[in-house]
Structures are given as C-alpha cells and as structure tokens.
User: What shape does this take?
Amino acid sequence: MNSPVSKNPASGPEFHAAALEHTHAIVQNLDGKILNWTRGAEALYGWTAEEALGRNSHELLDVSLPQSLDEIRATLFQKGSWTGEFQQSCRDGSRIWVVGHWTLLRNDAGTPVAVIKLNNDITALKNSENALRTSEATVRSLFENATPGILTADESGRIVNVNAMALGLFGYTRSELIGAPVELLLPESLRGQHVAHRAGFALRPRARPMGQGMNLVARRKDGSEFPVEISLSYVAEHGSGGLVIAFVSDISVRRRLESERENLIARLEWALAEKTVLLKEVHHRVKNNLAVIAGLLGMQADAISDSRAGIALAESQQRVASMALIHEYLYSTEHLDRVNFGKYIDELAHELCSTYALQPELIRVVLEAEDIDLGVHRAIPCGLILNELFSNALKYAFPEGRSGTVTVQFARLESGDLTLSVSDDGVGIPAGMDWENSQSVGLRVVRILARQIDGRLTLSRTGGGTTFEIVFPPFARTAVTPASKLESWSEPDGSGRSHSLSRSASGSP
Assistant: This one.
C-alpha cells in the first residue's frame, strides 16, 4: 500500500505570500495605484497599508527617478524588468536612496496587469560612497595644491605621480616625469650615490627627513641646481609593494636669508666690538682727564698759603678722584653701562683712608656692602655722596685722637629700593645744628645729589654718633627729557645767590 504524498509547506502560495510580506515590496497596477503594501514597506516608509492602498506610489513616495517614467515603462514592457537607483521620501520627510528591482506581472493570457517593486534601502551605502568621493577629492586637492612639491615613486624608483608645485620646481611636464627615474631630478654627480641610498630606504621604509645634516641639491630641467629640503614617507599597498612619497621644498630664499643674517650678525658683532673699544677708550680718557684735574687741584692746594682755600681745593680734588674711579671701573670691566657699587665702595674707602692718613688703631672702618650693580647715572652721584659723608666722618667725628668706628652700609631693601648709609660713633653733629639748611659745601652737595637720584636723605643722632642714610630707587622714576635740556637742583647760599649742580637728562652731573 503506497504512502500518501505529503505537500511541501514551503512551496505553497500561502508561504510565498508570507515571505513577500517581509520584503519592501509594493504591488501596483499599470496606472501606479498601490494594490499591495507589505509590512516591510510599512517599516521602510512609515505609512500603514490602510494609508497607502489605492494611492499613486510615485506621488506618495515623491520618487526621483534617474530617467523618465515613460522610458522605464518601455523597458518593463520590452524586457519584463527594470533595475535602478533613485531617491524616495518617507512619511517623516526624510529622503532615502533605494535600489529598485521592478518586475512586470502578466495574467495567464500574457497581458500585463501589474508591477511588483522590490526596493532595498542603500542610503548608508550611498552616504559612504559620497564620503569616500569627498575624501578622495580632498586628498587630490591637497596633493595638487600643497605648498611643497610632492612626488610619489614605486619601489623601483620610477615616478608615479607629481603635483603642480613639483612641476613648477623642476620645470618638467607631467608626462615627462611620470615613469621616469627619480634620479632625473638630481645632479648627475649624485645619481649613482642616490641609487644606493634608495635601496637602503627600501629595506627599512619609514617617515623621516632625507639627508639629515647634509646640504641637499636638486636639478631642474634646464640644468640649474638649487638647495632643497626633503621629507620622505611610505605607503604600503597590498600586492603592489608600496609607494615612497617625497615632499620637496625649495629653500633657496631661506639659504639666502640665512647667509644675509649671518653676515649682518657678523657686521653687528664687529660694530659692537668697535663700539666697546671706543667706549672703553672714552672712559679711559675721561678717567685720565679727571686724574689730571685732580692732580692740578692738589698742586694748587699745596701752592697757596690760605689754609681754608687749601682745604677746599683738597676736598674738590677728592671729589674729582671719586668720579675718576667710576670711569676706571667702566673701562676695566666688561660692562660699560654699570658699576659693581659694592666693590666701588671698598676701593673708595681705601683711597679716602689713605688720603686722610687714617690710623687703624684709633679708627676702625667697617664695610657692609652688597655686590649690587648701579647704572653709571646712579653710580656717579652715589659715589660723590659717599665721598662727602665718609670724608666728613673721618675728618670731624673723632677729634683730638678720639677712637671709634665708621660703618658704611649698602644694601637692597625688601621694597626693591637701595639704601646707602654712613655711620660713626664719634662726637656727633650738635643737636642744635640745622643740617638741612647748613651752608657746608659737602652737605649741600649731598642734599642736591640725593634729590637728583630721587632719594630720601635722613639724619639720625641716636646713640651719640651720627648716621646719614639715603634710600633711593635703582632706576629713575621720572621720564627722560631731551638730552639738550639741563635740569638743576638749586639751593640759596644765604647771600641771595643760588648755586646748583646741573645734570643732563641722563642723570649724570
């Protein structure tokens, strides 16, 4: 007895209808009215079957076809199918790309009755293709319009591509360079050597500057040579070995500017050295002239019989000597615009002690001076102030063989200002003496110079001795005036006349 034949459930019309429901299929009549709208179509486009059935598919989906609808219909009737890529709209207004496979359906008599459309969403693929095309266009634009000349070569050293800048650098046409060996762009004397270098690079290809520490030279089509800077890169290509990318820059202008810069620096260094020699010579001559003036004042002091006049001349001699010492420092050191005032104090103190024949067993001198540089326009007034105050202490603080100590201090305060003081533990200035209006030439000079350097001069009589202190800024606080104009600090001398120490705008007396 034969077994009954069972039907295949996957081959019946019910199965085919169910399978069709899960595709993006649309069935429409020849006029375009939708006859069947699958669940797949609902998911893709957003309209339900109730909303879509009976409507014109081209109007509902706002279809943008690559050719006219009449042409597509002609193809359908002639071949029975049509395939193409086009855009459609979804219910939310978004536009999507689809690839459509349209098939013409016929009845049993062969008469066309409907069209079935299977549309697959390829929007992501289209976006990727567009991004790739944009990227390729960007790369081509960057390559062609790059500032350095760019050329690519295969592993055999044959030029594969060049950009516009490289063509301009070397003077060749693109057809002349494509396929030519890269050695064509080198001086003939370097071509053989470059073949060996290229073989070495092929063993270990990597991005690096070419010829580090070397002066690289390239050759134009006309035979002229020019200095270049080259960077190498490497792109591995599957199946074809790889490409070497060379970035070439003409550095002729840079080399010329570097040469001009080196020449300018050499000229400036020579001029500076010459200026330094001249300034040293000026300071040397000023020092010698001041020494001559000091010597003349000393000779005059020895030649006159008036003791008061002799003392005045000797004091003037010492003032000139203190200024000469500043200029001696300037031409004997590397710095022509400043003086180590701490060392200057030590030198001046020793000179004054020698001048006044100081007896160290009676008068002890203590120097507490920091090594602080003063500009020449500060150093000269400070030197004169120190000369007056220190000389006065040695001459008047210890009369009749009295012993004691003279202390000179020079330091920088926390505020940034500088302090210069001369102290002694001698007899002191009388309490009733109006030192600020004293007609003593030395004190008047000190007061005038203190104002000249924006200093505050004070006197302290505590402890029985005398302390003069001046606090002043290291630099002038006032604006510089034209050098042709002279400023002066004046004080009346009690006789109706006025005496002053004039200074130029630079501040030197």
